[in-house]
Every structure is written in C-alpha cells, then in structure tokens.
Amino acid sequence: METIQRTNPAYALEDARNVLFSKLDEAIDDMENGRVISEEEMWAELDAI
User: Fold this and answer.
1) What does the alpha-carbon distance between residue 24 and residue 42 come to, in Å, rounded to a whole number?
2) How far is CA 33 from CA 21, 27, 29, 30, 36, in A?
3) pLDDT by residue (tens digit) across 6-40?
4) How far is it, in rounded angstroms, from Cα 14 to Cα 17?
5) How far apart are CA 41 and CA 19, in angstroms?
6) Pick the residue with more confidence: 3 or 19?
7) What's the pLDDT at 2?
8) Minimal CA–CA distance to 45: which of 34, 37, 6?
9) Could you tell me if 11 and 20 are in contact, meaning their C-beta atoms sit under 8 angstroms apart?
10) pLDDT value of residue 5
C-alpha cells in the first residue's frame, strides 16, 4: 500500500487517483495474463485476514 504524505488536498486527491488507476491497470494486466484466483480462493484469503 502506498502512503501519501502531502498536505495540499488537491495533490492528495490527485495522488490517490493515480494510485487507484495504477492498481486498476495492474488488475487488468493480471486478468489479461490469466493471473487470477478463483472465488473460493478469494474468500479463503479474506477469511484469513
């Protein structure tokens, strides 16, 4: 998880948006390349948290 340490709210919002889009890009790449887990594996990981 990335941390944003700027005090200007405009920058913080832009940084948060950039992190979000970066994570979405990674997720899309993973899906396109077959690097996904099943629903059962996802629930097992969430239950472990």
Assistant:
1) 17
2) 18, 10, 6, 5, 8
3) 566 667 888 899 999 999 999 999 999 999 889 99
4) 5
5) 25
6) 19
7) 55
8) 37
9) no
10) 60
Residue 1: is its pLDDT beyond 70?
Answer: no
pTM: 0.56
* CB 39 within 8 Å of CB 47: no
Give the Cα separation of 3 and 47 in Å (integer): 25
Alpha-helical runs (H) found in the chain: 9-32, 39-48
Q: What are the structure tokens assigned to 17, written together? A: 């948006």
Q: Is residue 34 left, alpha or beta, with left meaning phi > 0 and alpha meaning psi from -120 to 50?
A: left
